[in-house]
Amino acid sequence: MAPPLFIRLNAGDGVVIARAALPAGTEVAGVTTTSRIPPGHKVAVRAHATGEAIRRYGQIIGFATRPIAPGEHVHVHNCAMGDFDRDYAWGVDARPTAYVDRAAHFMGIRRPDGRVATRNYIGILTSVNCSAHAAQLVADAFRKSPFGGDDPLAAYPNVDGVVALTHKTGCGMTQQEPLALLRRTLGGYARHPNFAAVIVLGLGCEVNQLGGLVQEQKLAGRLRSMDIQEMGGTRKTVQAGIAFVREALADADRVTRESVPASHLTVALQCGGSDGYSGITANPALGAASDLLVRHGGTVILSETPETYGAEHLLTRRATSRDVGEKLVGLMRWWEEYTRREGAEMNANPSPGNKAGGLTTILEKSLGAMAKAGSTNLVDVVAYAEEVTKRGFVFMDTPGYDPVAATGQVAGGANLVCFTTGRGSVFGCKPAPSIKLATNTPMFRRMEEDMDINCGTIADGEEDVAACGERIFEAMLRVASGERTKSETYDFGADEFAPWTIGATM
């Protein structure tokens, strides 16, 4: 039996979602469409007066900017943002977590300090953009083309690669919050369990001095550092860097994988190129997988603060304390002030691709995005790139821009990334593997070489959210055990390293 032409998410919603393109004159949920409705877009199922709230998921996603008749297409031409009261209801929905009796396991790499890795890289970090090219030259000496050719690491089968993570800052910056943010990010990567060894290259005269970075982040003994100016130039630095990597490879290759509990998994939850199906298929399915991981003792990190805006009151209800909930609300107030100061607005967040896919306002996008975090308690709220120390569902403050957000999550300790997309984002985040989840079947089929899991099966009526969540959870365990993702086959993950640049460039 074919699924209905529409998806109704809540009995109180004034709109339904088109499963596929609906021509004008199509009978849908008791109304007749007055124009063509693109797939993933909204159809009004009752009349809305000007200024009246429009609901999806049973929540406000915007307000009618003019009268809307039943059967009309509801989008940016007749729906916009507006102010409304939020009931934060601190912790009212927090419940004891129903942990499983016997935790799932995966094949991880246990480090000497007891932490567990999902990958085994050697990392080359940079203190400043001026040392980026030298770092890349070192990494290139050990890089195999994803399209074939000789493998410089063939003799080291347990090493996943040598990766240079470069950035565009490190100097011309103030020495307060911007520098602290960069150093916290670099420190998180230098300590990451997915790195067997790390070298950091500097120029020598930059604001982000290597000595200050090592001291502030307590990295002494964890990495090798070199300044190009002290080393005598680029060639000598590159030669020394290559020599360091060669020394480190033998030790790095001695690792073996062993069975470890799923509690050692920390998963970064990401979405990019979202569409009207994101909040119906991939995001809630990832939420179901997140709930499973938390019940097995693991940790999930939701971020992208601007993409939670307008839905934060649903998370504060799950906070384990009022203090945790107020931290989240405080972030929203900071972002409101930040966007005002920069002459922007929070509703500018949905991209042209998001809108083409059916998302109209940031409220609608946020309600779908937060579904990735499932339904368990919010146990902590942390700053960008801050180490995540509590197990369960944690929120990290980041921008909505995917590479910057994921960089912060991995710096905070995520050893796996799950990334949902409706438009077809291609992404990786070394040293953590990235699982790509497609929200709709047509895009999955079109970009199957880049997508790992098709969650469009939910919209197609082939499985429910819980079953898809089970598939995602099982994929998490397999990938954490060493199974390569589609993005890894193309060697994604180095260029996507993007620390949050905040403050003035001097």
Please state roughly what percent of the residues sit in beta strands, choosing from under 5%, 5-15%, 15-25%, 25-35%, 35-45% or over 45%: 15-25%
Tell me the span between the first and last alpha carbons.
63 Å
Overall mean pLDDT: 95
Approximate helicity band: 25-40%
Number of helices: 14
Count of the separate structural domains? 3
User: pLDDT under 50 segments (min length 5)?
Assistant: none
Report the sheet with the most strands, covering strand number, pairing sense and barrel closure.
7 strands, parallel
Task: Evaluate the radius of gyration.
Answer: 24 Å
Strand order of the largest sheet: 19-20-18-17-21-22-23
Number of strands: 23
The gross shape turns out to be globular
Q: What is the SS-derived class? A: alpha/beta
